[in-house]
Design brief:
Layout (H helix, E strand, L loop, with lengths): L1 E5 L2 E3 L6 H6 L12 E3 L1 H15 L9 E6 L6 H10 L3 E4 L10 H16 L3 E5 L10 H9 L3 E12 L2 E8 L2 E8 L2 E5 L12 H6 L6 E2 L9 H6 L25 H19 L1
Helix pairs in contact: 4-5
Length: about 270
């Protein structure tokens, strides 16, 4: 079983100043001064792959783990961490242009990497990857590869003979399905959503391993050309304000406050019924 997890490192948008959102225009928001964090769904996918490899049912199956990110050097510390945790392969595809609003380009790079370089039979992605994400990347990757795709995955376990038992969330509960590889899985609110932390011994043992840097052109993708034909163009940004009004009910005792609440707000609503 050859597993590839595609992940994204995003700015910590909670740390942005409000002025940065106001100033954001066609060039996007200035995020260079905030730290980078793993997208929560991608983090769950990375941990899920480790758990799949550690599963007792997988002992008779050789599971090789790989990680791919479309990013610059800022992702290098995360790739080193994945090596320390037991990932066998790690690669990044640099892109000078922002792909936040170009899911088709992102999917083309991932599919090209699977076909031309990694030859994986199981691809894991987060169901969403941050600001501007449409949630379509996993489905577009699956369509390009001609593989089945299941979304909102929360758990999975190997069954042997190239099959997986996958649990996913649907509108009316949980769905448990048996899938045959190859396939694409989009991870949602997983049971375990945090990536484990490697020990110092593990980091030292794999400190010399380097991530492979692959040019998008070698994967058959012309990023600049694809973006010029993209139907989605960022023209501006506007921050949504979600403010709720509140009323302080005044009273000396809980009884007085309850009576005031009833007289001023609840009584008229009840009478209207």
């Amino acid at each position: 079983m050859r597993i590839l997890v595609c992940f994204k490192v995003t700015p910590d948008y909670e740390a942005l100043r409000e002025a940065d959102w106001v100033a954001g225009a066609a060039d996007g928001v200035e995020t260079r001064y905030v730290r980078r964090i793993l997208n929560c769904f991608d983090e769950a996918a990375l941990e899920m792959a480790l758990r799949l490899a550690d599963s007792p049912a997988a002992r008779g199956v050789t599971a090789s783990l790989g990680a791919l990110s479309i990013a610059g050097k800022e992702v290098e510390p995360y790739l080193k961490t994945l090596y320390a945790l037991g990932y066998d392969r790690a690669a990044r595809v640099p892109s000078e242009a922002s792909l936040d609003f170009a899911p088709a380009v992102t999917a083309a790079i991932i599919a090209g990497y699977v076909r031309r370089v990694d030859h994986s039979d199981l691809v894991l992605l987060g169901c969403r990857s941050g600001a501007g994400d449409s949630g379509t990347v996993p489905f577009t990757v699956a369509e390009t590869l001609g593989w089945p795709c299941l979304t909102q995955v929360t758990e999975m376990e190997p069954l042997g003979d190239g099959r997986l038992r996958v649990t996913s969330m649907v509108d009316d509960g949980l769905l448990r399905a048996t899938l045959r590889l190859p396939c694409v899985l989009a991870v949602g609110n997983a049971v375990v959503s945090h990536l484990r932390v490697p020990t110092l011994k593990d980091r030292l043992a794999r400190r010399d391993k380097r991530a492979e840097v692959i040019v998008a052109g070698d994967l058959g993708v012309d990023i600049a050309g694809e973006l010029s034909r993209s139907p989605c163009v960022l023209t501006g940004l506007e921050r949504l304000r979600r403010v709720r009004r509140g009323v302080i009910v005044v009273g000396e005792t809980p009884r007085e406050k309850t009576q005031a609440l009833f007289d001023r707000y609840l009584k008229s609503a009840i009478e209207a019924l």
